[in-house]
Structure formats: structure tokens, C-alpha cells
Amino acid sequence: MAAPAANPAASDLVDERLIHGLHVQAARRAGVHAEHEPHVVFQTSTLDALFDGDFEGDLSFAELAQHGDLGLGTLDGLDGEMIALDGRFLRADPDGAITEIPPTAKTPFAVVTFFSPVVAFRIEEPLEHEAFLAALNRHAPPGSPSCAVRIDGAFELVRARSVPRQRPPYRSLAVLSDEQHVFELRGVRGTIVGFRFAAYAQGLEVPGYHLHFVDAERRRGGHVLACRPAGVDVGIDRASELHLELPPGIGLGPGQGSDARRAEIERLEGPG
Ligand SMILES: [Zn+2]
Asked: Which of 89, 224, 70 is nearest to 149 (CA)?
């Protein structure tokens, strides 16, 4: 193996695009090297691949940890929701119970970054979910359509979901609508981590906000469908580069993110 370079060699790159200020580099595994550059978001595989039932992970959590300390995703076989926080990788089971993920476990879809916020502020008053997202949007760094967020504090309500493990032959991610478990956490303290991606990133990503929650005791958590913060500290990190690692057989088609697929994502992931 050649010595790792700061950037993938051109021959390793599958695709390179500049979309709305977000530099997207897609590479095969050999072309993806661990980096500690700020404002780089690393992702393995694409949301489209997940929708197509590609639930078999090929990247270990030990490898994922080389690319970020904050983020979200899922595990092999769609075995729960993953929350990455302070370099720890946690799994929320279908009932929202949290366990630590072993470094040898694998992920078919994950997004992480080495979180270094460029904006920090506090929201004192209780807010409904939509008003909360609007507040995040108001404070997001200008000219930065994609960003990573971390929100710590008190929540009157977190409505979350998780998913039970799937067995091959895998069906589409649409199984989520039948099999997801939705639960409500009330009067909790904890942390929300996640990302905002603009609509152009659809196919690769959940457009809008994709947020996961874990409580302060690291006992309950999941994918956030809605929340009502009541006194939280917010940090926002600008994301200027997206490094995509594409497993074998996964491509970046020109037709990423059809309208029908987008509607399906919105239905499953909630309004961004
Ligand atoms: Zn999620």
C-alpha cells in the first residue's frame, strides 16, 4: 500500500463535484485516507444505496473513528440507530436503549466529522420543532448550506425512532415505515448531533436536518422525528467538504435523488 496522501490520488477518485459550495469527493476505499482536517464531513456509502437495501456494512467502527468524533448512521443489517459523540459510538436498539458499539462492528451508512464549531449560541426559551430548526438556520454560518450541529441541554420532548435488525434478503429502506419503533422521551437532558444538507445532496444524504439524540445518562436515544428543546446550547460547524467512501458496487449515478425517492425520504425521515 502506498503511503497515505493528504488527498486521494486522481486515479482513486470516482467522482468529484462542486455543488453549492460543498466540495464532494467520492472515492473507493483505497482512496480514502484518515484526515483530521476541520470542516470535512466523511460519509460511507449513500442514502440511495441504503434505500436500495444495501444494509451490509463494509467499514468498521474502528475505521470510521479515523474520520470523525461526531455524527450518525446505522449498523450492519440496519441494526439500530448510531450516534457518534465525543469519539464514542453508541447504538440505540428498537426500544431506544443505548449500548456501546464494538470497534469491530460494521456500518453500511454513516456520516461523521471532527466537530469544531464556528458558531455557538444558547436558546433559552422552549421551542417547537419547526421554530427550533428555524433558529438553527438563522445562526448557521452564511454561505454554508451544509453544516454539522451539536445541541446540549434540556428537552421537554424528543420523539425518536429506531429500527429492528433486518435479515437478508434485504428489502428497501421502506421497511422502516412498517417496522420502525417510535417512542417519546419527556423531560430529558441530553445531546442532539447531526447534519444539515441542502436539497441538492439528496440521494447522497437526507436533505434538511438529520438528527440523532442520546440522553445525558447515555441510556436512551434514537433518530429524532421531532423535539421540543427547553434551554439548550448549540454549536454549528461549517461543512465545506464531503468525502464519500463508496463500497464496491455502489456508484454515484447522475440521476441521484428522483422526486419519488425524495418523497419517500421525507416520509421516512420526517420533515427537515
Ligand atoms: Zn437517522
From this structure: 70
3-state class of 167 per DSSP? coil
Please state the rounded mean pLDDT for residues 20-41: 75
CB contact set of 24 (below 8 Å; sequence gap of 6+): 15, 16, 17, 18, 204, 241, 242, 244
User: What are the tens digits of pLDDT across the range 142-187?
Assistant: 777 789 999 999 999 999 999 888 888 887 777 677 788 999 999 9
Alpha-carbon distance 49 to 167, whole Å? Answer: 16
Q: Whole-angstrom distance between the N-terminal and C-terminal Cα of the chain?
A: 41
Which of 19-33, 147-161, 193-207, 250-264 holds the top average pLDDT?
147-161
- Give residue limits of the domains in the chain: 15-248+257-272
Instruction: Kindly report the average pLDDT of the chain as a whole number.
Output: 84
| Ligand 1 centroid distance, CA of 210 (Å) | 6
- β-strands 22-27, 241-245: how paired? parallel
Kindly give the distance from the C-alpha atom of residue 22 to the centroid of ligand 1, in angstroms, as a whole number: 21
pTM of the model: 0.87
- Helix (H) / strand (E) element for 179: namely helix 175-179
Distance 269 CA to ligand 1 centre (A): 7
Q: Which three cell numbers stand for residue 41?
A: 464531513
CATH of domain 15-248+257-272: 3.30.1330.80
